[in-house]
Amino acid sequence: MIRERHDLVIVGGGPAGLAAAAAAREAGCDDLLLIERDRNLGGILNQCIHDGFGIHAFKEALSGPEYADRFIRKVQSLGICVMEKTIVLELSKEKILRVSREGETKEIEAKSVVLAMGCRERTRGALSIPGHRPAGVYTAGMVQNLVNLENIMPGKHVVILGSGDIGLIMARRLTLEGAKVEAVFEVLPYSSGLNRNIRQCLDDYGIPLYLATTVIDIHGPNGRLEGVTVAQVDEKRRPVKGTERFVPCDTLLLSVGLIPENELTRGAGITIDEATQGAFVDDSLMTKIPGVFACGNVLHVHDLVDFVSIEAARAGRNAALYAAGRHSSGTEGIAVKAGRGVRYVVPQRVSHGEDVSLAFRVTDPSRDRVIEVSDGERVIKTSREARLHPAEMVWLNLGTVDLNVIKSLEVRVR
Amino acid sequence: MEHSFDVLVIGGGVVGNAIARELSRFHLKTAVLEKAPDVGLGTSCRNSGVLHSGINYQPGTLRAALAVRGNSMMDTICSELKVKIKRIGKLTTALDEDELPGLRQLMDQGTANGVPGLKILDCAAMQKIQPGVEGIAAIWSPTSAITSPYGLTIALADNACANGVSYFLRCEVCRIEKEGKKFTVRTRDGKKFAAGLVINSSGLASGRISAMGGVTEGNNGESLKIWPCRGEYYVLDKRLDGMLKTLIYPVPGTKDAGLGIHLTPTVDGNILIGPSANYLSDDMSEDYKVTASVLEELRRAGQSLLPNLKVSDFIRNFAGNRPKRTSPAEGGNEDFVIEEAREVKGFINLVGIESPGLTSAPAIAEMVRDLVSNHIPLREKEDFVAERPGFAAHFCELPIQEQERLIQEDPEYGEIICRCEKITKREIRDAIENPLGARTLVSIKYRARNGMGRCQGGFCTPRIVRMLRDEYGFEVEDYLYREAGSNLFVGNVREGEGK
Ligand SMILES: Cc1cc2nc3c(=O)[nH]c(=O)nc-3n(C[C@H](O)[C@H](O)[C@H](O)COP(=O)(O)OP(=O)(O)OC[C@H]3O[C@@H](n4cnc5c(N)ncnc54)[C@H](O)[C@@H]3O)c2cc1C
């Protein structure tokens, strides 16, 4: 088998991989390879033709492809070596990647690796929605791909389950293309998409959003979906008897969550955090395997691409330093815990202590709260928040954390 | 136009295709009429995929004899047809003293049926086979095996087709008439077929097709009514692959409609939880709804059988309906009916082929061949080809050197379309270009295995949709999920912009 060597290999050419590649090159890494399995760079952004990308990073509302294009051009102008239509099949602890592309397989030995494979959508099977199995039940992202890239209309009467952002965006898109979107149903008592998407994609088009409601049956005995039964749910998400109703539709879109694609990560023996479904990382975004970094949606699912780019640049920079032998594995480090009201925190460990940035999500929606970071004994940082929502990731910069003094960190909502 | 054949096989399930393949060894003009857009979309793709050893059936029954014989034929068939098979054996376990008499009786039955290699194991011996298994004693049946039920069904059909059998898909038989020695069979799409022999292997429809053919009862006066009995399953993520070394079944009760809810590993590395057993009304014989209450039951059973099972391990669920000859009131099982109807000569009837129908299929085919030979002298063809080209494993399961060689041969082996199951473009192409001409999304999936992983086709479906359009000329209305009427799309977003 062909064997190649590179200082740095970046797996995934979506927004995370692109930003990591650019930052690594700017940090002085000359021998780097960016691997993408699709025909083009850009990842999921290629099918996101709506605008709203880049408001934080560029102070402009760009479409997905426009946002990606800025990074693709940067990667090209930096002369970074890109391998498209190539899939990484396996990553070993020794940082050897087995890749396959049209016409060849090879092994690549890397000094440093950035994992940026993104995520996939949760499916009907994973939710165990009972009923028939007709045509017409699709994940929202797949429909986004078919509508925006393949010019294919999946149906005319649409019900959306889950108020995730892709579902909201698709509610508007399908409406604009002449479909009737009957409603969006969300099992939680609050929306799981961004507030601005609820306003711009549902409210502006008169599409109702029913909270604490879910699909309990799928009807399609003759091959194509004919309707769904929905019901309200109680606090334990169990359907409430007597609230069932039939909603006729030919299409059911599922926008019920994203799952980081960590098959390669697991294969390499890297432990996965149950809460994020991504790797455990330290403040340099390095996983348990020295020299392997993770960023973007493969690390934890983001709601704004701008922050993916920032996070990925950090990973790319550190990976470049590692490949050059200038990134220490750090100390054993201290644990970062998710305290009251916090679902998870990334990184899960601080072992360098410079320019420490925490990203986390809260468990419940709330208003006028204070976020506290405590070192076990005292509160070292607070931040006042007018509105907190599980759909919106919170970022907090701690600056330098003196690991000689501070022995643990906990983030909580008060 | 009338299509003329020697033999018409109604129903392209595993049984119909096994018969077609067996008959294709001889100078005979045979056709298979299947109402669905592909073979095997009935019960044959909706079961556990277990090749039973034959211990569970009463001595003297067809089920006992055909399961033992069918099981013994499977190594040859699977190797000829490139179908996966794993002889993983089975433990039928007694949990306590009360179950020991049942276990002993089962052992005697198995011995009487001629099941090879049976042994009673004590607890320690059981643990050696499957660490952690519960129970005080078990019967070990080493011939119990697993296979791919749709893989086998498709392979039998492919090989029958390669050996000259004509396949008519989307042809639902709606009328059967007999004049003199000749049957005229009509299908809903207006085709007309003529033959001297008709074989009814229509599974859940076998009772109705019997009646259509003028057969009111079995040769011994038995009822030919089919009572559909649904079995639901969960499919588990491959993460758990390897946890089950063997099949583990409880000692069955005599009134049970199935063999009880249990775990079954599949040849592709998933685990199935199921099947349940719930009778359906007559008009629902092909209703494959999965229900909340049964899923809940399966989930609980699964969690007690596999303690570290996680919610994220459930990747899919499905249902299959058993074509039973016993009513809910009677419970238990009746034997297969396999005979030439006394009332209607030349009408070979197969009714109530529930479990172990998959296991028995090749043995049923031999039996049917003998019934055919009573009418038509069988002359073997010299050019019969038993082998099916290709390999049983998926490309990604082949040794690396072999993969590299194949990629040299065809670069499309290097391009992966389904990332979860690592299925290559060449495998998708082979599936699209199958000899039967079946082109639904499920047809491709059952052949190539794309879309059977964690993302359930979320990523590869658009790529396959594109491939079918760009390379095979598909229009939006040509895309079917599975059966007629299961159109995937309603049109283009912008007309005129087309492709
Ligand atoms: C839950 C469950 C678990 C099982 N587990 C096992 C197991 O582990 N091992 C085992 O050995 N067996 C098992 N079985 C039994 C096994 O699946 C069946 O016995 C076997 O698949 C029957 O095959 P068949 O060809 O007779 O029927 P089918 O596969 O149903 O084929 C009949 C075909 O006839 C077609 N047809 C119907 N009407 C018409 C018409 N009018 N015109 C044209 N075509 C028509 C149908 O479309 C269908 O394709 C199980 C069954 C079930 C339901």
Explain what you see.
The complex is a heterodimer of chains A (414) and B (499). Chain A has 414 residues and is of the alpha/beta class. Chain A has 3 domains: 1-121 and 257-329, FAD/NAD(P)-binding domain (3-Layer(bba) Sandwich); 123-256, FAD/NAD(P)-binding domain (3-Layer(bba) Sandwich), CATH 3.50.50; 330-414, Immunoglobulin-like (Sandwich). Chain A has 8 helices and 28 strands. Chain A has helices at residues 15-26, 64-77, 124-127, 140-150, 165-176, 195-202, 263-267, 305-323; strands at 2-11, 32-35, 51-53, 62-63, 81-83, 86-91, 96-101, 104-115, 119-121, 137-139, 152-153, 157-161, 180-185, 209-210, 213-219, 227-232, 245-248, 251-254, 258-260, 292-294, 334-338, 342-346, 349-350, 356-362, 366-374, 379-388, 394-399, 409-413. In chain A, strands 1, 2, 5, 6, 7, 8 and 20 form a 7-stranded mixed β-sheet that branches. Chain A has a 5-stranded parallel β-sheet with strand order 10-18-12-13-14. Chain A has a 5-stranded mixed β-sheet with strand order 23-21-28-25-26, with no helix packed on it. In chain A, helix 1 (15-26) runs parallel beside helix 2 (64-77) and helix 1 (15-26) packs across helix 8. Chain B is an alpha/beta fold and 499 residues long. Chain B has 3 domains: 2-44 and 150-224 and 333-373, FAD/NAD(P)-binding domain; 83-147 and 226-321, 2-Layer Sandwich (D-Amino Acid Oxidase, Chain A, domain 2), CATH 3.30.9; 395-478, Arc Repressor Mutant, subunit A, CATH 1.10.10. Helices cover 28% and strands 21% of the residues of chain B. Chain B contains 12 helices and 25 strands. In chain B, the strands form 6 sheets. Chain B has a 6-stranded mixed β-sheet with strand order 10-3-2-14-22-21. In chain B, helix 1 (14-23) runs parallel beside helix 8 (357-373) and helix 2 (62-81) packs across helix 8 (357-373). The longest helix of chain B is centred in the N-terminal third of the chain and has 20 residues, at 62-81. Bound molecules: flavin-adenine dinucleotide. Residues 10-16, 33-36, 41-44, 46-50, 52, 172-173, 201-205, 209, 231, 275, 320-322, 353-359 of chain B line the site of flavin-adenine dinucleotide.
